[in-house]
Amino acid sequence: xxKVLIVDDSQLIRKLLTEILSQxxxxxxxxxxxxxxxxxxxxxxxxxxxxxxxxxxxxxxxLTFLEKxxxxxxxxxxxxxxxxxxxxxATMQALQLGAxxxxxxxxxxxxxxxxxxxxxxxxxxxxxxxxxxxxxxxNVSLEMPDLSTQQIGKLSNKYQLxxxxxxxxxxxxxxxxxxxxxxxxxxxxxxxxxxxxxxxSFANRLNQLYELEVKEFNQSxxxxxxxxxxxxxxxxxxxxxxxxxxxxxxxxxxxxxxxHKPSVDKLFNSVADTFAGxxxxxxxxxxxxxxxxxxxxxxxxxxLTIAQDxxxxxxxxxxxxxxxxxxxxKVLPLTKIGNQxxxxxxx
Length: 347
Prior knowledge:
- By secondary structure, the protein is α/β, with parallel strands linked by helices.
- It is 38% helix and 23% strand.
- It starts with a strand and ends with a helix.
C-alpha cells in the first residue's frame, strides 16, 4: 500500500487527486495539506511514501519547501505543474532540486481534464514510490567539471552521431551526461518524455549550462550539425533521414509508440537505419520499455549501445528492459556514461 500526502492550496485539486488516486487499490491517500507549513506537520504524523506538491501556495512556495525537504528528509515528490511557460520553468527547477516527476495540470477546465489523466497520474505515483531517491539526490549534487583542463586530443570520425533516450529522472541524468562533453562533438539527438512546452524550457536550461548549442527541434526538418544538441519537442516524434553525409532531423506526426510521443524507439530505429555502426546509443533512467527495442536495432546495425545501471537509475525500467533484451553493449553508472562517450568520440 502506497501512502500519499497531497499538498495543494486548491480544495478542488485536493478533491480531484484524492478521487483519482483512490481508484487504485494499492494507493491510500493518507492525508492532505493546504500549504507546506501544514504539510510539515502531516509528514511527521503520517510518514507518507509519496508527496504530490503544488508549486504556487501561500506562506511558502513549493520550490522552497521542496529544497528544504530534499535536504532534510529526502523522499519521492511528484510536482503538480501548470501547463504554462512559467509552470514549465518552475517544473525544471523542481526536477533540478530533486523532484522525481511531475503531473501537468490543465490551465482551464481542470475538473474535466485532470480526471482524464487518471491512468498517467496513478502510474507516476506508483513509479515514484519505487524511485531511487538516493540516486536522484546524488545526480543533483554533482558539480560541473572544469572542461578547460581536459586533455581530450582530436575528434575521431568513427562515431558521427549520439542518440539518447530517457524518461523519469532523465532531465538530471541527461545533464550529467552532457556536463563532461567538450564543445566539439558530433550531433547529439535526445528524446526525453515530457509534454509540449516543457521540452522547450528543458532545452533552454541546458543551453545555458554548456558550450554545446542545445535547442528544441520544432521544425518540419533541419540539417544535423556538429556541436549541436537537439531535444525532441513534446508533441511529435523526431527521426533522422538521409544518407552519404547528408542527414536531417524530420518531424514525424504518426501516432504514439509505446504510449509515448515523442518515442525513443522511433528515434533509435531511424538511427539504426541511417547511421548504423557510426552511432552511439544511450538509454537512461525511465519507467516502461520505450527505447529498448530501438536500442537493440541499433546494436544489431553495429552501433555502440549503452544502458544506465540499476544503482544510478532513478527508475530502472527502460534500461532494465534493454539489458534483458541484450540491447546494450555496455552497462554503466551514470557518472561514467559521459566520459565513455567522450572517450569513444576522441579515441
